[in-house]
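Chain A, query sequence.
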Amino acid sequence: MIGYVTLGTNDLQRAAAFYDAIAKEMGTKRMMEYETFIAWGEPGGGAGIGLTKPFDGNAATVGNGVMVALAAKDQAHVDRIYNLAMSLGAKDEGPPGDRGGGFYAAYFRDPDGNKLNAFIMGG
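Chain A, predicted structure.
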């Protein structure tokens, strides 16, 4: 149902380094790049992530209650994504663990404060 998600940034190059590393761990790469916008994913593949400086020229801000969930391969992959994010300066929002009902997830915020999680269902 979701085609892609776009997040705002105030420092595209800093944020791009963060998402380049996360994308590599997830087996994907940049698929589109412009002066103020970069997207990661696979053309024709699942939902990707775009990162942009806001079009209106105002500062990027974080949406309260907004989160992007990254589908991992298994629990070990959740752990690797979370640990990689932490090593890249992410802020912890909940370490990897069982959240009930076969849902294993880890939560973190990127350098701009956007909330993400890595998860696996039934893993």
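The chain has one domain: 4-54+67-121. Residues 41 and 48 are 5 Å apart (CA to CA).
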